[in-house]
Design brief:
Length: about 350
């Protein structure tokens, strides 16, 4: 991709991840087009109002294009396609149709895909389904915390301006300067996307190893334990609590799946209930005035709950197929609510 301010990006999905990624890419000078379902057209046909917990102010996002029919991708040209559908939605019937159209439109082109959907080695499934070349696809995900304001109610901590927040479509917070993360499965693609994103001037893109990115999915075991505890503040969780330790033990079993290789075995030896909890406590502190426990209740306890639980069930199924003993993960999955 040329070093210019005219990069073109198609974002598949316009939930919180899609809109916030689009906003920062627009600040970076990119021309952004959203591919959305028809029922989202009305809302996105007007400028989107964003509440920033970073400085407790409102931002306006406009100037993007909209598509509602994935078949219209044929004949288009983009530097990047960023897929922001959750993993469960991507592999549902409608999502598979989108993947098929992406494959038809961009096979044999220079278009790169940032796969922001979450799952166990989901990239391998995506490559097989789409027929795209491995050199075109890397993993990536938003690192800031964002939510749809009308769909969620958050506690108001000091510094928040409720009157402004009430006028927003989406709200977001950077717990760190990093707002997006990609892996370096294809180093040139990762470099080019990070260079583009960084030109926003207000948010950075971090590039991490494929092993580190892959292993992050195991964290859903601890999030499930947090859900079973009914989402208290991380500072109020006792690291010796039976449910919390069960989630941590399940995460260690998850990390030992063969798909994670030697990196997973090393991570499993280093994982413990105290350090995992400390990670969430630090995030909780750095995310203020956005409330992380309330955000996770909304996001992981509701919005992508089906995805999260599906990932844990898939991990258990993979472990059983490999003949691996996974008593903690089995016990954790058995305690998850049936939805």
């Amino acid at each position: 991709m040329a070093e210019s301010n005219t990069a073109s990006v198609c974002i598949v999905g316009a939930g919180s991840m899609g809109v916030l990624a689009g906003y920062h890419l627009k600040l970076a000078g990119a021309a952004v087009t959203f591919l959305v379902r028809p029922h989202r057209l009305e809302q996105l046909s007007r400028p989107q109002v964003l509440y920033s917990y970073d400085d407790n102010s409102l931002k306006t996002y406009s100037g993007y294009e909209l598509l509602t029919d994935p078949a219209r991708l044929a004949g288009t040209s983009f530097d990047f396609v960023v897929i922001t559908m959750d993993g469960a939605a991507l592999r549902a019937e409608a999502g598979v149709k989108v993947v098929d159209e992406i494959g038809r439109a961009f096979r044999g082109t220079s278009t790169a895909v940032i796969l922001g959907s979450v799952g166990i080695d989901l990239r391998a499934w995506f490559l097989e389904r789409s027929g795209l070349a491995g050199a075109q696809v890397i993993n990536g995900v938003m690192a800031n915390l964002a939510y749809e304001v009308p769909a969620a109610t958050m506690p108001v901590h000091p510094g928040v301006k409720p009157d402004l927040l009430a006028h927003a479509d989406y709200a977001y917070r950077h717990p760190s300067p990093v707002g997006f993360v990609v892996d370096r499965t294809v180093p040139q693609v990762a470099h080019d996307f990070a260079a583009l994103y960084d030109r926003s001037g207000v948010s950075r893109c971090s590039v991490i190893s494929p092993d580190e990115y892959k292993l992050s999915v195991a964290l859903f075991a601890t999030l499930a334990a947090w859900e079973l505890l009914d989402w208290p503040a991380a500072r109020d969780i006792n690291p010796t609590d039976e449910t919390w330790r069960l989630g941590n033990d399940a995460m260690r079993e998850f990390q030992r799946l063969s798909v994670f290789g030697s990196a997973g075995l090393v991570a499993s030896e280093q994982t413990n209930a105290e350090t995992t909890l400390e990670f969430f406590r630090q995030q909780e502190e750095s995310a203020l005035p956005l409330d992380v426990a309330a955000f996770n209740r909304y996001h992981h306890g509701g919005k992508v709950n089906g995805q999260d639980h599906g990932i844990l069930r898939e991990a258990l199924s993979r472990g059983e197929a490999e003949g691996v003993e996974m008593p903690a993960l089995r016990a954790l999955v058995a305690r998850l609510p049936k939805r």
